[in-house]
Amino acid sequence: MWFLLIPGVILLFILIICIRAALFTPKKQLPSGEKTTESDSITIDETEMERAIGSLQEMVRIETIWNWDKDPEGKHFAEFRALLPKRYPLIHEKCSYEQIGRSGMLFHWKGKSAQNPTVYMSHYDVVPADEELWQKPPYSATRENGVIWGRGTLDTKATLCAVLETAETLISQGFTPENDIYFSFGGDEETEATDTRDIVLHFKEKGIKPALVLDEGGAVVENIFPGVKQRTALIGTAEKGMANVSFSVNGTGGHASAPPVKTPIGMLAGAVTAIEKNPLDAHFCESVLKMFDTLGRHSTFAFKLIFANLWCFKGLFAFICKKSGGELNALVRTTCAFTQMQGSTAHNVLPPSASISANMRLMAPDNIDSILTELKKRVKNDSIKIERLNGHNPSIFSNMDSEGYLRVSSAAAKTWSDAIISPYLMIAASDSRFFCQICDVVLRFSAMALSSEDRKRIHGNDERITEGQLKEALIFYRHIMTAS
After folding, report:
1. Helix, strand, or coil (residue 155)
2. Per DSSP, what are the bridge partners of residue 359?
3. From the DSSP assignment, how many helices (H) and strands (E) are in the chain?
4. Which residue did the predictor score with more confidence, 176 or 37?
5. 433 and 199 in contact (C-beta within 8 Å)?
6. Which phi and psi angles does 219 have, rounded to 5°?
7. pLDDT at 443 over 70
8. What is the rounded distance in angstroms from the CA atom of residue 57 to the CA atom of residue 155?
9. Which of 6-15, 178-187, 264-273, 455-464 has the lowest mean pLDDT?
10. Of 221, 340, 370, 481, which one has the greatest count of Cβ atoms within 10 A?
11. What is the helix, strand, coil percentage profile of the chain, to 5?
12. Rounded mean pLDDT of 218-244?
């Protein structure tokens, strides 16, 4: 007769998950209960705005593309560094400055206390641009209809510009920060990231332990979370690791008219298929769980049923992510993207060896050693050599109860009062990861509202920023620097 209880158990289960979904309501924006008020408004006057636009245009016109083979002296980078004293004389008068590494810049603005310093990061190198595919020349910094065009406007010369413009204005007003502030600007973030590594070594040697490090990362975005239509300000509290992995097979070569039963490329194709059909297991890390808990409370009731009851729907949600792919899937598992292949140099010749490389983004607790083991389990072919080319493990998770997180979230809430403030896991890599060695609160937030089209233009064609986006960045940094 026990089976008669089944309908009652099912009804009870449905009732429980519905009640939990109904009670899954939004939390306060700011952890301390702080509210934005009219007094929080900051005005950027026309003079400040024009100066910032002019600075950004001059920065964009300098082609800071990392290419030490063609430019071993780094002339464009030296030109960029020489520009800053002209645009920011008060910063160079008030702050100490050091060039660290080949192209790293470190400014130190002394505050009333040196106990809890803040580091504001950016990078001034850019990726190459194919001018033929752009509507405007990528290094012209064309200003038209309230838009500044150019490579680096979004990634990340506008951030560097906003940081320095804010400091220059505050210094002119006689402002002294409560705690020391450092500006750390790398020139090789897009490639080797040695500048920030060396800057962190410098901090170690000086015994400096930042209370907060803020770098590029999340942004103010729309329509990125299931069931949420409101804008969201995503603050990265950690980032995934990265590993480039090689899959290689040695063969005997020979003429293609008499191929063996198993060719090197055929074996590699089987390995690719096996891995793509059986991706690595899902992991719901701290940053993602808190993101789901924050944004899920603003979603539609159907999605609240899932996010309020992950205790029983994690498997279902992981399956949905697996089938959908894309950014949502990248938030819950280590991903493997096959990107490069090498084989024979002729159509009718069997390759003596063949290889495929994959770019992997590691979700904690996965690490480089563990993913290599998992890949070998899926491939099940000892003839295929699987090895790490380079990479790094996932970063630490920053403390979301810290004063640093509160400062960033508060500044974001004051700048974009209509946005939901949420933690976020950064699925790309930044050189802020080096600061995790000496700081417990390393956050990643690009202080601008980015549409889906804007995000595609980062490293893509027709990169550009509106004057409104630049103005919001100036407002954000004014909020956060005056609170430091």
Report:
1. helix
2. 244, 337
3. 15, 15
4. 176
5. no
6. -150, -175
7. yes
8. 14
9. 6-15
10. 481
11. 40, 25, 35
12. 95
Which residue carries 């700048």 as its tokens? Answer: 415
How far, in Å, are 23, 33, 420 from residue 28 at the CA level? Answer: 15, 7, 10
Place of tokens 């390759």: 351
Query: What is the spatial distance between Cα 393 and Cα 251, in angstroms, rounded to a whole number?
Result: 33
Q: What's the pLDDT at 373?
A: 97
Render pLDDT for 26-67 as a digit per residue (tens, 0 to 9): 987 765 445 554 446 798 999 999 999 999 999 999 999 988
Question: What average pLDDT is seen over the chain?
Answer: 93
Neighbours of 355 (CB within 10 A): 19
- Which is it for strands 212-221 and 113-123: parallel, antiparallel or unpaired? parallel
Nearest to 399 by CA among 439, 434, 440: 440
User: CA torsion sign, 225 to 228 to 231 to 234?
Assistant: negative
Burial class (CB within 10 angstroms; exposed 0-12, middle 13-18, buried 19+) of 61: middle
In the chain, the N- to C-terminal Cα span, in Å, equals 67
- pLDDT at position 307 over 90: yes
**Taking residues 93-119, what's their average pLDDT?**
97
Which residue reads 């103010």 in tokens?
220
Q: What's the pTM value of the predicted model, to 2 decimals?
A: 0.92
At residue 263, φ and ψ (nearest 5 deg) are: -95, 160
Beta bridge partners of 94: none
Q: What distance lies between CA 175 and its chain's CA centroid?
A: 31
Q: Is the dihedral of CA 235, 240, 241, 247 positive or negative?
A: negative
Q: Chain centroid to CA 422: how far?
A: 14
Instruction: Encode pLDDT of 141-150 as tens digits.
Output: 999 999 999 9
Confidence band for 10, pLDDT divided at 50, 70 and 90: confident
DSSP-H helix ranges across 296-415: 301-307, 310-324, 326-330, 368-379, 403-415
Q: Could you tell me where the DSSP H helices lie in 403-451?
A: 403-415
Number of other residues whose CB lies within 10 A of the CB of residue 325: 11
Q: Which residues on neighbouring strands pair with residue 246, listed in sequence order? A: 357, 387
Contact 407, 181 (CB under 8 A): no
CA dist., res. 445 & res. 118, Å (int): 14
Beta carbons of 463 and 154 less than 8 angstroms apart: yes
Quote the CA–CA distance of 363 and 62 in Å, as a whole number. 36
